[in-house]
Specification:
This protein is of the alpha/beta class. The chain has helices at 44-56, 66-86, 99-118, 135-146, 166-171, 195-211, 234-237, 288-294, 336-362, 394-400, 422-426, 431-435, 448-465, and strands spanning 10-11, 29-30, 32-33, 93-96, 126-130, 151-155, 177-181, 218-222, 241-245, 255-259, 304-307, 322-325, 367-369, 382-387, 404-405, 437-441. Helices cover 34% and strands 13% of the residues.
Amino acid sequence: MEATPAPSSHAQRRVASPPGGHEEKSPPERSVYMDYNATTPLAPAVIQAVTEAMREAWGNPSSPHPAGRKAKDTISAARESLAKMIGGRAQDIIFTSGGTESNNLVIHSVVTHFHKVHSAEGDAPHIVTCTVEHDSVRLPLEHLVEEHVAAVTFVPVSTVSGQAEADDILAAVRPATCLVTVMLANNETGVVMPVPEISRRVQALNRERAASGQPVILLHTDAAQALGKRRVDVEDLGVDLLTIVGHKFYGPRIGALYVRGLGERTPLCPMLFGGGQERNFRPGTENTPMIAGLGKLPSGVLQKVTSVRTRPLCCPWLPTNRTCILTPCPQAAELVAENCEAYEAHMRDVRDHLEQRLVAEFGEKKIHLNSRFPGAERLPNTCNFSFRGPRLQGRAVLAQCRVLQASVGAACHSDHGDRPSPVLLSCGIPFDVARNALRLSVGRSTTRAEVDLVVQDLKQAVARLEGQGVPPSGV
């Protein structure tokens, strides 16, 4: 099995024309991709699964003939694999177009159900969330407030931990509260939220509320950034609903929604109406090839490490005297929960090396690490930092980079210019520091050598912006 290829491009820079007018080209520069929180490349096994489904499972899954049954069986197998990856049941998985739809479906369902059950009481449904949520949660909630359909409390995250703390979430609960939605890990800082603690507190509160006839509070977490980077188990988290996004962990650009006790314990109200697919919760003829790809994640999962002489193609980050025994592709998703630690350890090592090299090259007075919060867990792959200096806005630095491909923050905010990230400001990062922020997120195939290339590239970019000229190569 092949390794997951890191996104790359080779930009050729032209040098001045020599006498005679013949233009020469410098050797291609290697491009290093460090924007894995924005999206990841498709794993080879996923490409294979999608291709095979297009060729062999092209039938309509709702049709009773063999072509239809083949497509239906493909979808069922993917649902089983995805459920095993998060420690849930296959019957509690609904496939969607992506994270935005999944998050909107959660909010729509909870509000619709509240109005059906509690309309006679006259109260508007109330939702609790935090100030650093993804736009696919924040914007629908703001729209509900504008339309006077629901009330929403946006709980500030702690400027000490960067987290939405359980005490603050519970303090925001009202009698009409029906949903708490807190992301599992932030896409800009990498900070992991205390979802298990929030869940325990909400469950205890629900037992008290049941006696007084108050609505049950459902707990939702958007796990888009966490999956594939750390263990995610719905039983450990204690959530009622969980959002899954394929393209964040080497899969296709579709998603899914986990709903504990779908339609029985936890209500789900469709936003679309049509042919009855996905048990009427999400109608529309299923996108079989993409679903097949989602069910095959990730490729090259590490099952067992043993001594050999050469470095394996599937895991290029392993030492040269180690390899992994691979399982066949159809079982890959089933092994994610067992083997995610190998990827996590590698990404943490590379990320830590990146931060150490940044501090070593620029000094602590020049670098501010925006994603380090005392006592808070964070994703193993995410480094958010700023260069201090009036000319060193994040976009300006990236524009000067010739090797690094990264972002200043969330990809969905790419048109916000030099405005500081609201997420960083919410976390207590000063305005001038937040405006200069860069988000580097490493992947499973990122190496220490690539980190060294990136740090040198950043050093030259900063020197150009500050008018100091370009440092000699290798300095």
